[in-house]
Amino acid sequence: MNITKDIKYIGVKDLSIDLFEGLYKVKSGIFYNSYVITDEKVAVMDTVEARFFDEWSNNLKEALGDRTPDYLIVQHMEPDHSANILKFTQLYPEAKVVASAKAFAMCKNFFGTDFAEKQIVVGEGDTLNLGNHNLTFITAPMVHWPEVILTYDSFDKVLFSADAFGKFGTDDNEDWLDEARRYYIGIVGKYGAQVSALLKKAAGLEISKICSLHGPVLSDNLGYYIEKYATWAGYTPEKDGVLIAYTSIYGNTKNAARYLYDKLTEKGIEAKIYDLARTDMYEAVADAFKYSKTVFATTTYNADIFPYMREFIAKLTERNFSNRTVALIENGSWAAMAAKIMRQKLEACKNITFAENQVTVMSAMSDDNKLKLDALAEELSK
Ligand code: FEO
After folding, report:
1. CB under 8 Å to 55, separation ≥6 — which residues?
2. What does the pLDDT average to over 343-366?
3. Is ligand 1 within 6 A of the CB of residue 213?
4. 169 Rama class: left (phi>0) / alpha (psi -120 to 50) / beta
5. Is the beta carbon of 290 within 6 A of some atom in ligand 1?
6. What is residue 25's predicted lDDT score, i.e. its pLDDT?
7. Taking 90 as the threshold, does the pLDDT of residue 55 lie above it?
8. Which fold does the domain 239-380 belong to in CATH?
9. 1 has a pLDDT exceeding 90
10. CA 166 – ligand 1 centroid, Å
């Protein structure tokens, strides 16, 4: 597949994977993207996951025709892209490997060699000329690992963006946004400051296409994707709305959560509700970063909070959850302490506003609880 006259796609589609990074459910697999730029010199952009060497190297051979690669540019050392570097160097022994110093240090760990005879070490602003195509490297530490570089081709105005702007899934008809958000928040969400710094550097570039290492090549309305990344990186709510995340043992906390959900939707408020024990936790995490308000509803359990809620809040706080309004619903048949514990955990986050109406269910929802939930719905609808 041609991306431009000189840039060809040689990536692969992984439909057999169940959990990306052993953690994130993927409903329709994932792409490991790779590209070839053919000019006076030939550059290959990254490899693919280990299991796909044969398919990828065949794609590469087909794209090369009678040429051989002069360079393998390694933008990111996570094995979904780097696993076949050693095999590539065995297949094309004359090719140089272009990467950051940190990437070569990682090569030594992964492959037992840092390719000393073939190394071209690049850093911020360094260039590599292929003929017409002049490549400029942009360092992007922690987007997603410390060694990451992005590559800008000023001839075709293509930004090779490493993991940035990627998404889960291989369905061409699926909208980019939801699975790109779940991917971003899950994988890079903690590193908003570094993503913001990268976006500042990229702002000066004229870009006609973004070639990520996952998901589709982006070529229309690029401002839309960049604006979404700026929103997520700044921990700014993307949408006014309420996420309700609950755990429930015998259904009583669920009743309270659903009662609130119904009251909110009756008022025309956009709301989503998740049973944390029975959902993809990372969908709920992504939606907590999407919406402006989150309601946490859980039971007291072993003098703590229910395990799935503990896990959910930990996933939020480790990703710098901030700039949100939160509300607390607790349930406890004798010494209810879930709200106090949740509050302590969330107080550690930046710029969190707690709703005035906090609800304590004592075993089952009472009429008094309903009045309090009505008041909470009113408060959250403002
Ligand atoms: Fe797609 Fe961070 O690797």
Report:
1. 12, 48
2. 97
3. yes
4. left
5. no
6. 96
7. yes
8. Rossmann fold (3.40.50)
9. no
10. 9
Query: For the whole model, what pTM was predicted?
Result: 0.96
The answer to whether the CB of 49 is under 6 A from ligand 1 is no
State in Å: Cα 32 to ligand 1 middle.
9
Rounded to whole angstroms, how far apart are CA atoms 277 and 284?
A: 11
Give the position, in ligand 1's atom list, of the atom nearest the Cα of 166.
Answer: 1
Mean pLDDT value across residues 286-312: 97
| Block residue for tokens 């709200």 | 339
Break the chain into its structural domains and give their ranges.
7-233, 239-380
Which residue puts its alpha carbon closest to atom 1 of ligand 1?
Answer: 163
For the stretch 359-375, pLDDT in tens is: 999 999 999 999 999 99
User: How far apart (Å, rounded) are the C-alpha atoms in residues 139 and 146?
Assistant: 9
Query: What pLDDT is recorded for position 282?
Result: 97
Mean pLDDT of all residues in the chain?
A: 97
Q: Give the CATH H-level superfamily of domain 7-233.
A: Ribonuclease Z/Hydroxyacylglutathione hydrolase-like (3.60.15.10)
Ligand 1 nearest atom to the CA of residue 145, by list position: 2
Residue 140 pLDDT class (50, 70, 90 cuts): very high
Q: Which of helix, strand or coil describes residue 127?
A: strand
Among candidate residues 334, 275, 283, 266, the one with its CA nearest the CA of residue 306: 275
260 lines ligand 1 (CB under 6 A): no
Nearest-atom index, ligand 1, CA of 162: 1
DSSP code string of 316-359? HHTTT--SEEEEEEEE-SSS--HHHHHHHHHHTSTTEEE-S--E
The residue whose CA has the least distance to atom 3 of ligand 1 is 78
Q: What is the mean pLDDT of residues 331-353?
A: 96
Q: Are 342 and 296 in contact (CB under 8 A)?
A: yes
Q: What does the alpha-carbon distance between residue 302 and residue 298 come to, in Å, rounded to a whole number?
A: 13
17 lines ligand 1 (CB under 6 A): no
pLDDT higher than threshold 90 for residue 355: yes
